[in-house]
Model the fold of this input.
Amino acid sequence: MRQLGAMGGGKKTITATPRQLESLIRLSEAHARIRLSKTVTESDVAEALRLMHVATQRAAVDPRTGTIDMDAIHTGLGAADRQANEALAKELLKLMQRNYQNDSPRVFQLLNEMNEQSSEEISQEDLMRAINHLQDDGKVIFSNRNGSVTLT
Done:
């Protein structure tokens, strides 16, 4: 498992937590039980390690870069997605500061304007993630009641 850290360009190291070690033990024991054995062998442990490796790699590999991205496991959002969200939030803030200093546009208006100026299609889900990011930073207020966004 520690070898996985070297695969992502050495940026982040993967360490085994007690929970992961306990999982390896449970998987090894389960594999032994499948063989109808009361004793765990090295081959049971090897299979448990293989299963953990495949599961971790599948969950952590960024499909765009092919590298392991532990942010995807820990936060549910990979580093590339997080950076894209931050860039979208920055562009959204610029748009609001330029066009809506004293106004509170609705999400659909912002989505239309952002898509007009973007070379890639922006989904409402991505826009809402950017709005939430800006709200968490205290730069905007989102009103669920009417779907409007106001600069703070």
User: Anything to note?
Assistant: The chain is about 60% helix and 5% strand. The radius of gyration is 23 Å. Strands lie at 140-143, 148-151.
